[in-house]
Design brief:
Elements: H1 2-5, H2 12-20, H3 22-37, E1 49-50, E2 54-55, H4 56-68, H5 75-82, E3 100-103, E4 120-123, H6 125-131, E5 157-162, E6 168-173, H7 181-193, H8 196-241, H9 246-256, H10 258-264
Antiparallel strand pairs: 1-2, 3-4, 5-6
Helix pairs in contact: 8-9, 8-10
The protein binds zinc ion (ZN).
Length: 267
């Protein structure tokens, strides 16, 4: 990846220095791979120089000019990473559209990882902004990394109906008992720093607006029982698509709530 990016550098002196740090860049990527596998990314030391000779600004330019820019030698790999998330959804929030590549460890502090594919995660701009150039200080501050942390085999996102008018949902992380304390705190950190609870509550409120008329009609004809069946079926259908999607949690929470089904959905 790095060699492809620097293949068209014209300045001979710069090219020689960049080529000279290839091994340092490869080593940094291998270190990242090992650390991410063992939740030790917070132990990677920030750097000002790569291999002692290439500056942070020069490495940032390799990313922006030689990888991210249209027509740049590394652009094909940039595009492949950009489109790697299913249906173009940001893997960090699972909701908004991918609009950028996020440096998991910021290039401003880890220049050797500026073009490392393992460090480049497709993300929406809001998630990208929420992370900014933050550096994890402890293992439990390592946000989820979509290439390394696959937790969607477990149900962990839940919601409950909060009785205000109109009914609103509160989302939270419900860690399965077999998760380690570390994984639990990392998921909670991820959820909190990206503001997912607020995002999902807002979306759920809008979803309720869209189905209220239908729920009202069902309630008129068959009471709370019919409303509950409809919500349960919607929850099941959403679960088939995304176990931990906010819609799945939304419909499940609505269906579980007797008060909601018996008219709580109304304004
Ligand atoms: Zn996002």
């Amino acid at each position: 990846m790095f060699s492809v990016c620097i293949s068209r550098v014209r300045n001979a002196q710069l090219k020689a220095r960049l080529e000279g740090v290839t091994q340092a860049v490869v080593d940094a990527s291998a270190e990242f791979d090992d650390a991410a596998t063992h939740t030790r990314l917070h132990q990677i030391a920030p750097q000002d120089l790569v291999g002692g000779v290439v500056t942070r600004a020069e490495m940032e330019a390799v990313y922006t000019q030689r990888m991210a820019k249209k027509g740049a030698p590394g652009r094909d790999i940039y595009d492949a990473l950009f489109t790697s998330s299913p249906h173009g959804k940001c893997p960090l929030c699972g909701h908004r559209t991918v609009s950028t590549l996020d440096h998991y460890l910021p290039k401003a502090h880890y220049p050797a990882l500026a073009v490392a594919p393992l460090n480049l995660v497709p993300a929406c701009s809001d998630c990208n902004k929420s992370k900014l150039a933050s550096v994890p200080a402890h293992a439990n501050e390592e946000p989820l990394h979509p290439y390394f942390d696959d937790i969607d085999g477990d149900l962990w996102l839940v919601a409950e109906v909060v009785y205000v008018r109109p009914a609103a949902l509160r989302f939270s992380v419900d860690a399965p008992t077999h998760w380690s304390a570390l994984l639990k705190s990392r998921v909670e950190w991820h959820f909190r720093t990206l503001g997912l609870g607020r995002l999902y509550s807002t979306e759920a409120a809008d979803e309720l607006l869209n189905i209220r008329h239908q729920l009202h009609a069902l309630h008129q004809s068959g009471g709370a029982a019919l409303v509950q069946i409809e919500l349960q079926e919607r929850a099941e259908s959403c679960r088939q698509a995304r176990r931990n999607g906010w819609r799945t949690a939304t419909y499940q929470a609505f269906a579980y709530s007797d008060l909601f089904c018996d008219g709580g959905f109304q304004e």
